[in-house]
Amino acid sequence: MHRDAFCSPSGQTTFFRERYPLTVNHGLTTPRVTFVASAVMLSALLLLLAGWWAPGCSESSASTPMGAVTSHAASGRPPETTNSHSPPDVSASVPPGPPSGGPIPAGALTTLANMTLEQKAAQVLLLTFDGESLVPATRDLLETYPPGGLLLLGPNIGDMNQLRDLTAALQRSVATVGAPGLFIAVDQEGGIVRRVTAGVPSLPSARSLGSDSSPEVARALALMTGVGLRAQGVNMVLAPVADVVNDPESFLYERTYGGTPGLVSSFVEAVSYGYVSAGLIAVVKHFPGHGSAPGDSHYGTPVSDLAAYHYRLIHLAPFRAAFAAGAEGVMMGHFVANAFDPDRPVSLSAPVIHGLLREELGFSGLVVSDDLEMGGATGNRTGLGDRASISELKAAAVAALEAGCDLLISTGRPDRQSALRTGIVDAVRSGVLPESRLDEAVLRILTLKLRHSIPIGT
């Protein structure tokens, strides 16, 4: 494990400062509403006139792309600039992922030293849970083996007051046992993938934004969405989607900004910057570009025969743009990229995570697996109704960690989530998974939490 893999960036890339003159908040202090207030108010006024701002709207309204507006002139949205779809020049920029270029914070090292193996295994999990309030089963989990974070889904979310109370209760629960605070994550892509609907703008689908809007509007929407999410206790957003997709039949089509790397890069950089400016941890997905692989990874493991050259030419550009804009996390897809590793999904592949992502792209941030319950993670090709076995699930979790993932998502039932923790513990004790690799993942998590003023325990 290299200590220099965990240091904080010296600054943000200048071309983003020039294009978007807002100071990025990397979470080094508590939320600073004042530094975005003027921008939010101005953007909100413009978007109110355009009919985009709809706090507390229903899910059905969110799924109607662009409302009734079909033109820039009618909507009041700014026209798209002629160069907005050209790929950003990020070749000279260093992705600022957390943390790079300095020592590991002493607090993170101290917390790690005081953690048991079971606690470390739990810290690398991002789990779903039941209920709109802190139910006994969730309280027991948080006070026994606190995970690194929780993922909010629709059944967890009501109105603003409910969500704010829930996230506060979740954080208090881990604090009572002196455990690190939680990542509170949500999918907030827009369109049909928009979990929080109250207190945030009505986000259209990425495809609608990419075809009918501009990166500037997308950035403003992301900024306001981020401020609204932060106010309700969310600190991590699993967005934007950086995949380049041309096939209208793809399950990702409406979730992506377009079918060319220039267009997708321009929107991904803008949305990433907006979320980061609001103080959120942005997790861009699905590396190294799910648009390269036909098929739905929820129901099996798609395979891409695309050449490495085409990945670098087309599919990696939006991720470079997101990293340069300040995205501190990246989610791995569950598909095979034959050009880099024909033997396993990219989420379980060291050549992809360590070789391509870390070494070639220079990303030092948090690497997140997509949901391990998806068929693509385990090779289950029969669909979500026939889950992988517990042993297959454990093997996938260990393989993902060994390959370089730091945080593993599970939407499984509590017994299956618990099996992930025990599987990791067993793998370390048996020598299958080096404890140094687990420590590296935990240190990256703790350091990122410190950067965002999330307590890391006593």
List keywords for this structure.
458 residues, alpha/beta, TIM Barrel, 8-stranded parallel beta sheet, two-stranded antiparallel ribbon, 18 helices, 9% strand, disordered N terminus
Explained architecture:
This protein is α/β, with parallel strands linked by helices and 458 residues long. The protein has one domain: TIM Barrel, CATH 3.20.20.300. 41% of the residues lie in helices and 9% in strands. It is built from 18 helices and twelve strands. The strands form three sheets. The protein has an eight-stranded parallel beta sheet with strand order 11-9-7-6-3-2-1-12. The protein has a two-stranded antiparallel ribbon with strand order 4-5. Helix 11 links the parallel strand 6 and strand 7. Helix 5 packs across helix 18. The protein is globular and about 50 Å long. The N terminus is likely disordered.
What order do the strands of the largest sheet run in, or round the barrel if closed?
11-9-7-6-3-2-1-12
Helical run tally: 18
CATH fold title: TIM Barrel
- Helix-strand pattern: HHHHHHEHEHEEEHHEHEEHHEEHEHHEHH
- At the fourth CATH level, what is the homologous superfamily? Glycoside hydrolase, family 3, N-terminal domain
DSSP strand content: 5-15%
Sheet/helix structural class = alpha/beta
| Mass-distribution shape | globular
Mean pLDDT: 81
Which CATH C-level class is it? Answer: Alpha Beta
Count of strand segments: 12
Biggest pleated-sheet summary: 8 strands, parallel
Any idea what the CATH architecture is? Answer: Alpha-Beta Barrel
Q: Which percent range fits the helix content? A: 40-55%
Spatial separation of the terminal alpha carbons: 24 Å
User: How many independent structural domains?
Assistant: 1
Low-confidence stretches: 1-42, 44-101
Measured on Cα atoms, how large is the radius of gyration? 20 Å
